[in-house]
User: Which sequence fits this backbone?
């Protein structure tokens, strides 16, 4: 399937999420041949989990179900540009690319998002202790 066909599938899933009382967001993962590997939609309202974004859930699915080589060939199609939380996980999993229908800027023009206060980060502390705990974890074979 081509990109537009897969994006239309995502838009249909997003509309279904809205009909079911969820936020209207959805995503799917496609193999290089365009076949759909997995799809999901936002379930933050029904689960009470603010992190239940479809992009996050599918990136986690890819991390569990695909090898890194397989994940590197997969494209995510999503209704809106992934948020910073989802982008971080997508990057970590190593998906090939993300194709979205609506940018964050466009979404903000349609439905302004609440301004969230950034959580202050305080550190680093106890460098020697954490360095000893980590040891050679990242260099050991």
Assistant:
């Amino acid at each position: 399937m081509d990109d537009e066909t897969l994006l239309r599938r995502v838009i249909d899933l997003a509309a279904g999420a809205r009909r079911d009382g969820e936020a209207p967001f959805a995503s799917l993962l496609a193999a290089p041949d365009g076949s759909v590997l997995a799809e999901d939609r936002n379930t933050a309202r029904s689960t009470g989990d603010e992190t239940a974004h479809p992009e996050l859930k599918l990136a986690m699915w890819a991390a569990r179900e695909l090898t890194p080589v397989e994940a590197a060939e997969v494209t995510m199609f999503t209704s809106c540009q992934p948020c910073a939380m989802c982008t971080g996980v997508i990057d970590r999993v190593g998906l090939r690319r993300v194709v979205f229908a609506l940018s964050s800027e466009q979404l903000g023009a349609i439905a302004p998002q609440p301004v969230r206060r950034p959580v202050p980060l305080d550190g680093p502390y106890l460098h020697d202790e954490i360095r000893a705990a980590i040891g050679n974890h990242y260099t050991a074979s």
User: Anything to note?
Assistant: The first helix runs from residue 3 to 19. The two ends are 41 Å apart (CA to CA). The longest strand covers residues 36-41. The chain has seven helices and four strands.
